[in-house]
Fold this sequence. Notes:
The chain is of the alpha/beta class. The protein has one domain: 2,3-Dihydroxybiphenyl 1,2-Dioxygenase, domain 1 (Roll), CATH 3.10.180.10. Helices cover 18% and strands 34% of the residues. The strands form two sheets. The chain has a four-stranded mixed beta sheet, with helices on one face. A three-stranded mixed beta sheet has the order 5-7-6, with no helix packed on it. A hairpin with a 3-residue loop joins β2 and β3.
Amino acid sequence: MAATPSPLGIIPVLPSLDIQRDIEWYDKYAGFSYYFGDNGYAGLRRENLEFHLQFHHGNEEDPITGGSVMKIFVADIRPYIEEFVKRGTITKEKLRMNTPWGTQEFGFYDLNKNAIFVEQDT
C-alpha cells in the first residue's frame, strides 16, 4: 500500500540584495525576527510564520527582479493594520475592505520590491 503524502508546510524564499539590511527591515517594519543564516541566506520567523531570504548579486548572471509575492492570511486583520500603521510600514488608507475577490487586505513592498500582503477572508 502506498504511503499518503503528509506535507509539513511551505516556506517562501524571497530574493535579497543585502541580507543583513533586509533582516533589520523585516524586524522593524514587519515584526519578523532572524533565527538562522549568514550573509547569503537567512530564516525569519513571526509566531508560526516563517520565510527565508536568499542573496542575489543583482547583475546579469544573478539578477534580482523583485516581483515576488508573499501572502499572509490572518483570522482578524484589525490588530495587524494597527500594528503596521504604528510601525510606519503603511498608512490606514492601504486597507482594502471587501475586495471583489472576497478579502480585506493591505500590502507593502520590501527594499527589494517584493510584495507582502496581509489578508483576511470575508
